[in-house]
Write a structure and sequence with these properties.
single chain; 65 residues; mainly alpha; DUF2909 domain-containing protein; DUF2909; transmembrane helix; transmembrane
Length: 65
């Protein structure tokens, strides 16, 4: 149950980073680096999410139950 909750939290954090990046794209000027930072965070969260999913399927915490 902890793994599923952690996966949900990481996914919601990715959505928040996506929304923040869209806001930065619309509002900021061309010199702002906040959009790039948001992208780096989103990519890191995606890698973490994939790692959690692989872990869950490999050890049987996720899948057919």
């Amino acid at each position: 149950m902890l793994l599923k909750s952690l996966i949900a939290v990481v996914f919601l954090a990715m959505l928040a980073s996506l929304a923040a990046g869209a806001g930065f794209l619309i509002r900021d000027d061309a010199q702002s680096r906040r959009l790039l930072v948001s992208l780096k965070i989103r990519v890191s969260l995606a890698a973490l999410l994939l790692g959690l999913l692989f872990y869950g399927f490999y050890f049987g915490d996720l899948g057919n139950a």
